[in-house]
Each structure stands twice: as C-alpha cells, then as structure tokens.
C-alpha cells in the first residue's frame, strides 16, 4: 500500500539521522539569528525526494531546504521537513523528527511524523483516524485546567517575541504547566496523543505542520491559526492545535 511504503521510506531516513550521532556535524547559517541547517538536513531531504518520487513520479515537492518550494497544484504534492527541530538535532537534544505529508488538490491525504530517537511514528490517513506506532490515538477531551500546554518560538523571528510570551503566560496560568519542545511537528503530534492539550506558535511554515495537522485532526482535535482562521498549506501562518475543549478555552484566552 502507498502509505505503508511512505512510512518505510521515512523510517529508513530516520536511520540517517541516528548515524549523525557518530559524525562531526557540518552546520550552515540561514537567514536570521540561530537559523541553522546541517548537511544531514540536505542529505535526508535528497533521500526522501529520490525515494518518494519513485512511488509517485508525477508528484511535486514543497520542502524546506535548497529552494524546493514548488506550488501545491491539483496533483500530488509531498510536503517535507527533513529535520524538524534542527537546533535540537545539533545539540543532541533527541527531540527532532522527519515530517512528510501528502496532498492532492491542495488537501491533506496522509501525514507521518517520525522521531527516530524514540522510534515513535505518528501517522494518519484522511478519514481513518490517527495512530502512534500502529495504535489509535486521541486528543484529550478535558479542558485547559487538566492539561499541559506547549508553545514554540524561533530566535530568527523576534518581531512576535512579546506577543508569544504574553500568550504563553495566559495559557500557563490556566493550565497544569507549559513546555517548549523545539519541534513543532512533534509537539502538535503530542496534542494528538493527549500528552499536550494545546500547541501554539505564531509563525510556522507549511513543512513544519502539514503532516501533523492531519494527525491532530484525525485524532479528534482542531487546528487553526492563533486568531481562529483556517491554516494554509502554501504559505506561513500561526498555529493553534488542541483538543476540542482546550481549543475553545485557549482561543478565548488569546482573544482577550
């Protein structure tokens, strides 16, 4: 089956991440403060594109590195982040992942997010629910007061610094506590599994959240912009992902 083959390719790409633990990292700076890319980001992206193209030769690719920002179009398009959480990866934080989503007509069909350090594979097929290592997962059905909240920041995007920490404080004061993991895709997936009640970030690119967006929705959650609007798959936007009750409470707090 197509989706099983994608999962196999992503799992093997995870081995390339693990091999980096025994190698000297080559790190390059991108635009902005603490905006890094490594040779492994590029190598894993090349591996993914090369192998995914064999599955769907006509597919286009929207990927983070090396200018692979093609349009979604009406056909198949893979949305790829070869290493989400590159700074974590550089510092051996072991909270990084490979994220691959598949769209058609601009809509998500399939998504998988893989943390090779923990061997956690989150996946979802449109209309078939969300899974973690093959077992069904569901978002928390409780409110903020009974949940943890996660949020994300980026040092190369400082224009929203005050606003994100103001929002984080509101969520912190109305929840069990707050976390910042450094990988949007993984932290959104942890909303899908019920480990986090909410995930908030004020500016992300589609490859950061595309696959995870389907996973959280198929787990019974909701994902929108921080302002409550529809997310986009062809341009950056803010992200508020949560279980249904948490989303209602969080969106109300953020609007105050």
TrEMBL record:
Reaction(s) this enzyme catalyzes, per UniProt: a myo-inositol phosphate + H2O = myo-inositol + phosphate
Would the keyword Hydrolase be found if you checked this record's keyword annotation?
yes
Which residues make up the binding site for Mg(2+)? 64, 81, 83-84, 208
Q: Which GO terms describe its molecular function?
A: inositol monophosphate 1-phosphatase activity; metal ion binding
Q: Which Gene3D superfamilies match?
A: 3.40.190.80, Fructose-1,6-Bisphosphatase, subunit A, domain 1
**EC number(s) given by UniProt:** 3.1.3.25
The biological processes this protein is annotated with in GO are: inositol metabolic process; phosphatidylinositol phosphate biosynthetic process; signal transduction
Enzyme kind, highest EC tier? hydrolase
Name the family the entry cites. Answer: Belongs to the inositol monophosphatase superfamily.
Query: What is the protein name stated in its UniProt record?
Result: Inositol-1-monophosphatase
The gene name on file is suhB
